[in-house]
Design a protein that fits this description.
Immunoglobulin-like; 18% helix; alpha+beta; single chain; 3 domains; 5-stranded mixed sheet
């Protein structure tokens, strides 16, 4: 059985079996991260808002919540919440009394990635399925699975599927997100800062040239003035001190 991980701001959430659509009368489990002590599953429904697992619905098992017999009233928005009030991203759960559901990612799909939509019946099968986006027919897949390669923003929309003799699924919204930027910027400057290692390399390379040039200039001065060697050495030392 697949587990679909949901990216959260704090504690990761898993939905088992994977997908946001559930058949009426079936069971599913929502879990906060195993080591997330103090996290609980909460939900909003059309009947009641901000209720916690175990409060007239579901069975709380640590940071997990299991709903054994799914009812239409279990349709709603679910999330994890800590004692401090930190919350996760939300997951929309749809309960259907029909015979077909569409399993699709509940998280945004990154541009350039591949995504598979699975049209399945209450009794698992591999029947052909028709897929639709925003009400328009896309194509028929003989296996009941449709894969979209190299996803782009234009693939975002409301999807559903239909299996002849069984009916159609509830709609499922597919969100496409742009990948995070990879460029590096240097604030308040158009030139990247010089690292200590590069600075040391510059000093090692250029200092000998500076010292050699200074010595040659000093020798030339001493010869031109005809002064003694002691005066010459004093001048060199003085110039080196100024250089440092």
């Amino acid at each position: 059985m697949d587990i679909l991980k949901v990216s959260l701001q704090s504690a990761p959430l898993t939905v088992q079996p994977s997908g946001s659509q559930v058949f009426y009368g079936k069971s599913f489990t929502l879990s906060c991260e195993e080591d997330s002590a103090g996290w609980t599953v909460k939900r909003n429904t059309t009947k009641k808002a901000m209720t916690e697992c175990g409060d007239a619905w579901g069975k709380s098992e640590g940071s997990s919540c299991r709903i054994s017999l799914t009812l239409p009233g279990d349709c709603g928005v679910y999330w994890c919440e800590s004692r401090d009030g930190a919350t996760s991203n939300t997951v929309n759960i749809t309960v259907t009394g029909g015979d077909v559901i569409l399993q699709s990612p509940v998280l945004p799909v990154m541009e350039g990635a591949a995504v598979t939509l699975n049209c399945t019946t209450r009794t698992p099968s591999s029947l052909p399925a028709d897929f639709y986006k925003d009400g328009s027919f896309i194509r028929t897949e003989s296996t009941g699975q449709m894969t979209i390669h190299n996803v782009s923003k234009s693939d975002e929309g409301l999807y559903r599927c239909n299996i002849s003799g069984y009916g159609r699924s509830p709609p499922s919204w597919l969100v496409v997100a742009a990948p995070p930027p990879t460029t590096t910027s240097y604030p308040n400057s158009t030139v990247p800062p010089l690292s200590p290692v590069r600075l040391l390399c510059h000093l090692v390379v250029f200092c000998p040239y500076c010292i050699s040039t200074l010595l040659l200039v000093s020798i030339y001065r001493q010869r031109s003035a005809g002064k003694r060697l002691t005066v010459f050495l004093s001048t060199v030392v003085h110039d080196l001190i100024l250089l440092i």
